[in-house]
Amino acid sequence: MSADTGGVIPARRRGLAEEVADRIRDAIFTGAYPPGAALREVELSAALQVSRGPVREALLRLEREGLVHSAWHRGTTVTTLSGDDVAELDSLRGALEQLAVTRVIAHADDEDLAAIERAAEHMTQAGDEHTMVHHDMEFHDAVFAAAHHGRLREAWEAIRSQVHLFLLTRIGVSAGETYPRHVPAEHRELVAALRARNTVTALELFATHRRHAFDVLRAEG
């Protein structure tokens, strides 16, 4: 991304706060705006080629997602997760994922499991850590979709952006040294446990998978 665009791709349709939010979110998830980075309305408006109104509304949407934070003396910045944030996200994700895994094993059909497996295989083709995180999130999206539980999926969507930020923070503090190597293999093990309909093993593997990321951030804290 060039410096002229401020790290974001110009919006195709003017005046749409949702699209502006998508562009800013994508820029955060690709590393153009790391945790703590300032998000200035004037600069974003120019980069996205929209007025400041949609940018302001988009930033409010992203704040509701927990992806950005606004303060009167600092303006709007990309959220920096505290130790308490990390612990809360980990515990809530764990509770949601436990129900999701249980329901996948009980209710998922072959098509659901194939979608989960495809998402896992995409990780082997990732060229960088940010793409790896993107596919990691796609994998968990597929798991929650395969649970066939509407409100559970909505609960996942409510914290999804923060979990994505959690994983980006994880690769940031560890310089990405081990993340690309072990994650694809871990996800293949998760797929195998789901296909085997082994609830105990699947829950244990998903818990271990979450703990790897959490332990890195806890050690840094």
Tell me what the structure shows.
- The chain has 221 residues and is mainly alpha-helical.
- The protein is built from 9 helices and 2 strands; from the N terminus they run αααββαααααα.
- The two termini are 32 Å apart.
- It has helices at residues 17-29, 41-48, 52-64, 83-107, 110-122, 129-146, 150-173, 179-195, 199-220, and strands spanning 68-71, 75-78.
- Helix 7 (150-173) crosses helix 9.
- The protein folds into 2 domains: 3-78, Orthogonal Bundle (Arc Repressor Mutant, subunit A), CATH 1.10.10.10; 83-220, GntR ligand-binding domain-like (Four Helix Bundle (Hemerythrin (Met), subunit A)), CATH 1.20.120.
- The chain is elongated, with a radius of gyration of 18 Å.
- A two-stranded antiparallel ribbon has the order 1-2.
- A hairpin with a 3-residue loop joins strand 1 and strand 2.
